[in-house]
Amino acid sequence: MFDGPAVWSMEDPRRDSVMDKMMDAIQSWDVSSRRNINYRSFEPILRLLPQSIAPVSQHWATWALYNLVSVYPSKYCPLLIKEGGISLLEKVLELESSHPETKDMAR
């Protein structure tokens, strides 16, 4: 998704359809769920935030950060701050392409 529509070479399924299904799936996840993942860096997630080609990628990244800082705040809030995540989340709020649900989590 992140690479944009020009890279999507399949006719079926359509990119828009996959993005819609991804959004529905992400929306169904419990944001307070505990996950057995140990991040040493948010860089792979953070690089998805400031783009508008695939808002669903941005939505997933925002959901992941929201989950981690909500469930494990003492571990992941400092990492988010250290790696510049706050300013990137602020940019999500400014992008017209960001979904309202994404903006809610970015706040």
Oligomeric composition of the shown chains: single chain
How many β-strands, per DSSP?
A: 0
Which word captures the global form?
globular
Question: What is the terminal separation in angstroms?
Answer: 24 Å
Into which percent range does the helicity of residues fall? 55-70%
pLDDT averaged over residues: 92
Low-confidence segments, given as residue ranges, are none
Q: Rg to the nearest angstrom?
A: 14 Å
Order of helices and strands: HHHHHH
What can be said about the biggest beta sheet? none
Number of helices: 6
Helix/strand structural class: mainly alpha
Strand content: under 5%
Protein name: Protein zer-1 homolog
Keywords: Ubl conjugation pathway
Organism: Notothenia coriiceps (black rockcod)
InterPro entries: ARM-type_fold, ZER1-like_C, Zyg-11_UBL_adapter
Structural features, described:
The chain is mainly α. Helices cover 58% and strands 0% of the residues. The longest helix has 17 residues, at 55-71. The chain is globular and about 45 Å long. The model has no long low-confidence stretch (mean pLDDT 92).
Topology:
Blueprint: H1 15-28, H2 43-46, H3 55-71, H4 73-82, H5 85-94, H6 100-106
Helix pairs in contact: 1-3, 3-4, 3-6
Salient structural properties:
ZER1-like_C; mainly alpha; single chain; globular
Concise structural overview:
The protein is mostly helical. The protein has helices at 15-28, 43-46, 55-71, 73-82, 85-94, 100-106. The chain is globular.
